[in-house]
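Quick question, first post here. What does this chain look like in 3D?
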Amino acid sequence: MRKLFCVVAALMSVTVNFAQEIKATEKNSESEVLTLTVEDAVNYAMENSKSLKSSAIDLEIAKRAADNSWNVFLPSLSASATASRQSNISSTVDSANSAASTAFKLKELDARIGTLEKKSVPVNPDTYTFLSMKPVIEDTETNHWAVIGNVGAQWNFNLAMIESIKAAKKQYEAGQITWEQANRDTEVNIRKMFYGILLQQGNLEIQKESLKNAESRWKQAEINYKNGMVPRLSMLNAKVTYENKKPSVLSAEQSLKQNKEMFGFLLGLPYGKSIELVGSIEFSYIDVDADELFRDYIDRNNDIIALQKKKDLLEISIRAKQLSTFTPSLSVGYTYQPLLYSAGSWESGVPTDSGSLSVTLVYSNLFNMLPFSANMQEIKNSRQQLNQVQLGLEQLYQNTEIEVHKLCDNLSVAKENIEAMERNVTIAQEAYESTLKAYNAGTQERLELQDSETQLNQAKLGLLNEKYNYISALLDLETKLNIKLR
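> Answer (accepted):
Ran it through. Tokens below.
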């Protein structure tokens, strides 16, 4: 017993240690930093985004509906069995017994006549005396019951059913467009947010560098004050400048942390997973011609394609309603009703069939053809909706053309601004370094140095903003025309 207790204790200890190792491994995996490039982020989002998984389910539903749309031609088939009890079967019993008695007596008579004829004995009329017999059917409980089977099949057809198959195909095509648009939007949003976070990181680095410089100037001013080289006011002003920069840095850090958490959510990462973005907002300039892009790629715009699919579906809906109204429906029905059990015994041989076959050609409602009927009003409404979609399509073409020209202009402006800001950063950097040397030499005031540093930081941040504007406009243009320009 003591040995058994020791074994159990040892097993429990191993189990606890194993559980602790698992928890430690999970904790370590959660604390590990996930390093992502922009392409890694896009690929991860495509595989793990919950919104894309939801869109994939919608597409799968539409595909299954399109693949099995032919099932409208399947007939309806039903099978049943009915047990019924008759309260009074006296007439049935008498009729059955009379018929059975007559049949039995005729058979007995034929047998006796045959025997006499073989013996060459003259047939005496008394030979035809009928024998009494026990009734074939008695008035018992089982004879009150009967079981009847029923198998029915019905097949209906109308020309509108063909249009419903076409509609299912079009809905699947529309679902494919929606799926492609969801993938495209996810990719663009991930890329924009990735570069936006890089922009935030660059801004934070600039602010941290500025804070570091302010701290250095404060400490230097404190040393100079102790050495009697500057008044106490100069030291205090330097410290105030340093302290004033702290809140903006802390706020920028918090904002960056929150945006990274949101970015992880869009990627499908668990909450709290640390990520590190690797990359820079760098790209190659491209030459674009708005008229040429619009002419060559306008028909690839997903919004236009989706609206065209909607137009096709409306046209199919109108044709289907017209066919269901003005063409007859064919209905073919067949029922098979065998008598399975009756008079206390199951039927043997071929069951009695009281089924039927019917072929019907019918107009469901002739009043639907009247011009003022609700059905005809629905058709007219659908035609007007079709006209609205056509107008919307024409307007969408015009709006897309305007957007393409606007985005191309944004690219051109952003390119010019980037080139100007690069020159400005070079000049501001040179000015700051000169002012810093003069400040260290004692020929420039601290305020002039601060102004010079502020100008440099603004130039750097402005350059990052313009680079982000360029790549954002490029992504929007690619999305608008559903193409890759890089």
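The chain is about 65% helix and 10% strand.
Residues 204 and 253 are 7 Å apart (CA to CA).
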